[in-house]
């Protein structure tokens, strides 16, 4: 399982540890990934995703998983998230406008 957020494509970054003597050694900056269960109101189902804490805040800010995926760019999403986005847009298109 790669260390990548399924919603924002936030992944591992590399850099240097720099000592007081200015010695540089390679290090990795890992994203803060959390396994969460998000609820899709349109599909009436729970979805388990591995997302960063930052993405989780963004989902809450936008008003839930459905609203987040509607605005999200498909290039940043994982394969599972793309499939969810497709299902949600299809379901919304089927519903009559009230």
TrEMBL record:
UniProt keyword Ribosomal protein, yes or no: yes
Chain coiled-coil ranges? none
User: What one GO molecular function would you report for this record?
Assistant: structural constituent of ribosome
Record keyword Nucleotide-binding present:
no
Tell me one Pfam family matched here: Ribosomal_L28
| Database matches in InterPro entries | Ribosomal_bL28, Ribosomal_bL28/bL31-like_sf, Ribosomal_bL28_bact-type, Ribosomal_bL28_sf
GO CC aspect terms: cytosolic large ribosomal subunit
Query: Which Gene Ontology biological process is one annotated for this entry?
Result: translation
Q: Which UniProt keywords apply?
A: Ribonucleoprotein, Ribosomal protein
Entries under NCBIfam families matching the protein = L28
UniProt lists the family membership as follows: Belongs to the bacterial ribosomal protein bL28 family.
Alphabetical list of HAMAP family matching this protein? Ribosomal_bL28
Write the protein's name: Large ribosomal subunit protein bL28
UniProt lists the gene as rpmB
């Amino acid at each position: 399982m790669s260390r990548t957020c399924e919603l924002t494509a936030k992944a591992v970054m590399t850099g240097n540890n720099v000592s007081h003597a200015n010695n540089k050694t390679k290090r990795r900056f890992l994203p803060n990934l959390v396994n969460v269960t998000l609820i899709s109101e349109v599909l009436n189902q729970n979805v388990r995703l591995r997302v960063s804490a930052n993405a989780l805040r963004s989902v809450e800010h936008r008003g839930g998983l459905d609203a987040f995926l509607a605005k999200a760019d498909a290039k940043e999403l994982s394969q599972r998230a793309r499939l969810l986005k497709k299902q949600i847009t299809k379901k919304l298109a089927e519903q009559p406008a009230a």
